[in-house]
Structures are given as structure tokens and as C-alpha cells.
Prior knowledge:
By secondary structure, the chain is an alpha+beta fold. It has a domain at 1-109: Arc Repressor Mutant, subunit A. It has 15 helices and ten strands. A three-stranded antiparallel β-sheet has the order 1-5-4. Helix 6 (123-136) crosses helix 10 (197-222) and helix 8 crosses helix 12.
Amino acid sequence: MNGSPAANLERELESMGIEKACVYDPLFEMYCCGGRKAYQRGTPHHDGAGNVVRGGNQLWDHPHLTYLTDLSLVTQSATGSKENRVYSYTLTDEAAEVGDHISQSRLTEQREELERILSDFSDKFLFVVAIGGARYGRIGGKTKNLRIPAADYSEAWDDSWVAALASTLTSTETFQTTELLSREELERVVNPNSTNDDELDVAADHEEELAKQFSELFASVLLKVPAFHKQAITLFEQLEAIGFAFTDQVFSTSGKSSTTYWRAPGAITAYIDCPSIEKELAAFASLYPLLKSYAGSGASSYSRKDLHIDLQRLAYVNSNVGIESVSEELTYLHEQGITSKLNGVPETSRPAFLIEDRERFERYLEQKIASTATSLVTT
Length: 379
């Protein structure tokens, strides 16, 4: 059949007397959710009469799902076993192309409504949501949708949200770094004083990418800071009202746990400006070593050598964050009885500093981070 997948499908639906919305609505929702929807048996869903029930074979809460299966627009699969078995629907490649078409068409048709919603939020806030949401919604290296967590740190963790943020920061940073560079390359990148041409070439090649990844890291953790997250949920709820956002469950491989996210088509970023967030990045960068020290078992496991390497990396993002600024911060905290001063021996494997009052140290970080989050929401 000649023509694009979208044009071909439209002709088929017209010839069969099927309303486009019956197919396009569930297909678009799947497209916005990364092309895949998964549920476990027992999840509330619509029965044939449109009533919400629990159990049975219907796996996804959409009354028109059968159109997608009958027209071979999705494939089905299952993982896990027994009560933890997870059933999935995945768009075919052609259906995903149709999803692209639907996304662009609906954005064009509802541009005024979308722009009205976006105008209620600050440009910096929207930009951070776009950066962080794109990182969460990246599939195979490409941004297909914006995805934000439905729960913030305070809702999802028993510990303080600062401890949760610090832990996430460390694990996310490790993943991002190893995804981009080998350990040997990283060590060369963070040695800007080297005169070795190979090392300088590596640094030049990756400087921009490292800065970009730090921005993504900042945005992705900020999306779960309570003050910022609350506003992000408000945005996605308003997008849901015009059909541009959906909730989605992502199950673990074993099916024993799941995380709920909000999703929206990545194409809406075309309507979001790109203001400078250097000031906010600088504020976050200045706290970065303190947050790193707070992760895991605390400052005792964050060595002076670790701090030295982190500061070299931060130089690519914010040249104002250096050993002097960290030393000044720790001197202030030491005077307040919260931490020790900075360890003055750069290459030692001993702690960069010690936390003497963990509760007050946590409150200090919480206030600083919340202040940055609030400034982005209200700017």
C-alpha cells in the first residue's frame, strides 16, 4: 500500500467505518508513554460495558484497546511469573510512526491551549522540566517523551528527601559518566593541567557533553525536590486536561514493584524557551560536593581525593566552583558547629571533611536546595 503509515491507516479506518478517535486515542497514549503500556492482572480496568472492574484479562485501562490489537498495531508480551507476571503492549514500528503524526497534528490543532497553559509557568521552570523530563523519557539515546516521577523524594523515601536526593545523585552520576566515558578517559578529562596532547584532546571532545550531562543531572534530581515537584505535577495535570499527559506504570523486571510516572510527548519542548539557568546551576554546583559527601555512609567515605576530582569536573560547568569556594563554605559550617574545616591535603584518601552535626547539616542542604527550587518556580 502506497503512502505513509498514517495515511494508510486513516484510509483503512474510513473504509471500515471506524471512528479515528477509537484508534488514535489509545495509540497516542501509548506513543506518549514510550510506545509501551504494561499492567498486571488485577489492575482496575474497563470491562466491555465501560465499567471499572478488577481482574480478568484486560490489562490496560482503555476501552478501545481491542482496536489496536485487532488491527495489529501492537505486539503483546509477558515477563515474570505467577502474581508478579507483567503483561505488555508495544507499538509496532509503523504504529509508532502514526504516533509521531498524531502528536504533530494535535500539537498544531491545540497550539493555543498548550501555549496558554505554558504561559502560567516561568520560562526557567519549564526549561528545567524539559531537560529533566527528557532525560527520564530517553529511549535508546533519543528523547521520545517527557517523563517525571509521580512521587517526590518525601513521598517515596522513608529517609529525608535530602538523603534520597544525595543517593540518587551519586547513582545517576555514576551511570551517566560510565555511559559517556571509560574510567581511564574520565581520569584524563579531569586533569586539565596535563600537557599530554591525547589527554587534552579527550577533554576537548567531552567538555561540552559533560556540561550538558551536569545540567541534566541537576534537572532530573530537581524534579523530585518537593517544592519543584509539586509545580511540575500541576503542569502535567493541566496538560492531561487537554489530552497531552498521561500516567504510566513502569514495572521492575521481576514484576514485584512498580513506579508511576507522568508522561507527555517530547514534541511539546518546541514550545518551551531556553533561558539561561547558569545562576541556578552555579548554586547547585556549589552544593554538589556537600551532597556527594552526604550520600551513602556520609562524609567519612568521601575522600579529599574524590573532592579534588569532582571539582575538576565541575570546572567544565561553573568555573566559580573551586577549592576556595568549598573551603569557605566548610569554614562557615565549621563556625556553626556543623562540619569540620576542609582537609588541606589534596591527594589523601582520608575524608575531605567530617560532618559533626548530621541533622543540622541536612537542614542546611534542604534550605539551600529548596531555595534554588523555589526561585525557578517563581522566576
